[in-house]
Amino acid sequence: MNAEDLIARREAAAAVVAEAARAALAFFERRNELGIDVKRPRDFVTEADRTIERQVRALLHERFPGEAVVGEEEGGEAASRYWIVDPIDGTSNFLAGSPLWGVSLGYVVDGEPVVGAVEAPVLREALAGASGCGLIFNGQAHDARSRPPSLGLVSLGDSADDDLTEMIDLYSRVRRAGWYAHSYHCTSVSMMFAALGRLDGHLQPTTTMWDMAGGVVLCREAGLLVETQDRGAGDHGVRGGTPELMAALSRNA
Fold first, then answer.
1. Exposure string (b/e) for 202-238, b if CB count within 10 Å is 16 or more?
2. Same structural domain, 111 and 158
3. Which one of 97, 112, 144 terminates a domain?
């Protein structure tokens, strides 16, 4: 894809996510009225998730008719090129009244995310990026060189599918390497924070493409090293961080 196409898709993704985020925030303000379904232990879905996903699909269809869309709630078939949406990433945080939830949208080409947009509506923060084309933060170009000095913080993602022994080992390696770990239970916002320099990275052994697609692009455009893994059966893994963090984790492997 050429830069012009990537930039156009970055702008479209940011606009779609912004509109969806406004609708999601309205749901958040009346979250106590929402019915809650449990997909599996600690994995929730609400009317808000389903409505926002349908809205994102409709907005994408207006801009890119006929293009494949995959979503957390309504599924879909991945193609060589497709959009992928998590309408409310961090639904448990959303329901608890925490601000740490987001709307995430990615565009994937041949298995690699190349466009991403994430918005945290309560925080009023939005970050969008495209491969090789830079980042836009709240509508303005974001200079990744403005990254603040490291505070030695990293986020660890968690999932009901995690292997507990693997997670304990990862936490031990992070601590031995000299970093402190946070867990926000929202992949997209965690990766946005890493891209903005509030964290040195985000590490998550088990996640999904809809959770991580937008954030992968943001972190790479911010100059972080990002490794992804297809673990099969729809599961993925992601490790993204500063060169110093990634090198330290390798030494402590």
1. bbbbbbbbbbbbbbbbbbbbbebbbebeeeeeeebbb
2. no
3. 144
Per residue in 46-90, pLDDT (tens digit) is: 888 999 999 999 999 999 999 999 998 777 888 899 999 999 999
Q: Which residue in 63, 57, 195 sits closest to 129, CA to CA?
A: 195
Domain span including residue 46: 3-144
> Roughly what angle, to the nearest 10 degrees, separates helices 47-63 and 3-29?
150
Residue 243 CA, chain-centre distance (Å), reads 20
Contacts of residue 144, Cβ cutoff 8 Å, sequence gap at least 6:
134, 135, 195, 221, 222, 223
44 and 163, same domain (yes or no): no
Ramachandran bin of 75, using left for φ above 0, alpha for ψ from -120 to 50, beta for the remaining angles: left
For CA atoms 120, 60, 215, 46, the dihedral sign is positive
**Helix/strand/coil for 31:** helix
| Spatial CB neighbours of 56, under 8 Å, sequence gap ≥ 6 | 16, 17, 20, 69, 71, 85, 87, 103, 105
Domain of 46, CATH number, reads: 3.30.540.10
Query: Among the three residues 94, 119, 144, which one is the final residue of a domain in this structure?
Result: 144
| pTM, two decimal places | 0.93
Which CATH number is 200's domain given? 3.40.190.80
Query: Which long-range CB contacts under 8 A does 61-70 form with residues at least 24 apart?
Result: 63/12, 63/16, 64/12, 70/209, 70/210
Are 236 and 228 in contact by the 8 Å Cβ rule? The answer is yes
| pLDDT tens per residue across span 174-228 | 999 999 999 999 999 999 999 999 999 999 999 999 999 999 999 999 999 999 9
